[in-house]
């Protein structure tokens, strides 16, 4: 039988300062210890370290995308130019550079200028038709941006005009509803539902007035039409007695109330 002896650690042995203050990195800690120390917590994600190689690859990818977009642009312009003759990419690139030196522009907008100017192209009169086309399209760059700015201004003015009309129509509808509410409230006050005879007597008075004012018409139309006209006259009389404001003055009252200049109702404002 062999006896195995174990050496006990020295009682006064102290850990070195590096051991106390320098925690091990994940690469130095055994995998079992990492798993036990992270029990109950989500696993830590290691972010990939950026190296000169990865940075160069990202830069190259971005540059490649930019070059691809530029190539797509001049190819669109070149395709339009070749509709009218032979040329190479340099002409398309010069047109793009000329226009983009003055502002933002898409290849399709330049294509529109090419087709517009090509309507004046006469290969029988120009010794170099493609050179002439490139020249007139490039010379039209300043006019193109001026016209586009004017069109944008006109579009903005038209949008503003439509917005004003829409707002005016909305206010007109609100005004009509306001008047209707006032009239209905006054009719309900004067002729309450629990006293129907008061309303019948008022309508009868208007029917008699209609018979006196328009006897021929009164005799021709049916009773339903006569009763409807009597109700219309009654509403008109109630509205007139209320002294409702005109639309323009009602708008002023609404605007003042929205601005916090008054707390009165539209009707109160109109009666000032």
What descriptors fit this protein?
mainly alpha; 69% helix
How would you sum up this structure, described in words?
The chain is mainly alpha-helical. Among the domains are: 73 residues; 100 residues, no CATH class. It has twelve helices and no strands.
Task: Summarize it.
The protein is mainly alpha-helical.
Strand element count: 0
Number of helices, where a helix is a run of at least 4 consecutive DSSP H or I residues: 12
Largest sheet: none
**Which geometry do the CA atoms define?**
elongated
Helix-strand topology string: HHHHHHHHHHHH
Instruction: Name the beta content range.
Output: under 5%
Low-confidence stretches: 1-13, 15-27, 32-38, 263-272
Structural class: mainly alpha
Secondary-structure topology with pairs:
Layout: H1 17-21, H2 31-37, H3 52-81, H4 89-100, H5 107-118, H6 129-139, H7 141-190, H8 196-213, H9 215-220, H10 223-242, H11 247-258, H12 266-270
